[in-house]
Amino acid sequence: MPKNKITDLRNHLFETIEMLKDKEIDLDTAKAICDVSQVIINSAKVEVQFLKELGTNKHSGFIQLEEKNN
């Protein structure tokens, strides 16, 4: 199971916003974090498209699917 998930990415991005507001990091560092995050998001989009083309409802570990209790 992958260590980092979409929720971790969101947390890091919100932390980056907070640090930027508190002047704990500079704008260039915040932009670099956002750029890398966008690459990760684009990668996840490709992964979702791939799974859709395969016709599967499995998850990759990065984007978690909640299991329904029926």
Provide a brief overview of the structure.
With 70 residues, this protein is mainly alpha-helical. Helices cover 63% and strands 0% of the residues.
Largest sheet: none
- What is the H/E string? HH
Amount of beta strand: under 5%
* Poorly predicted residue ranges: none
Describe this structure in words.
The protein has one domain. Helix content is 63%, strand content 0%. It has two helices and no strands. It starts with 5 loop residues before the first helix and ends in a 16-residue tail after the last helix. The mean pLDDT is 85.
Please render the helix and strand layout as text.
Elements: H1 6-21, H2 27-54
Helix pairs in contact: 1-2
Give keywords.
70 residues, 2 helices, mainly alpha
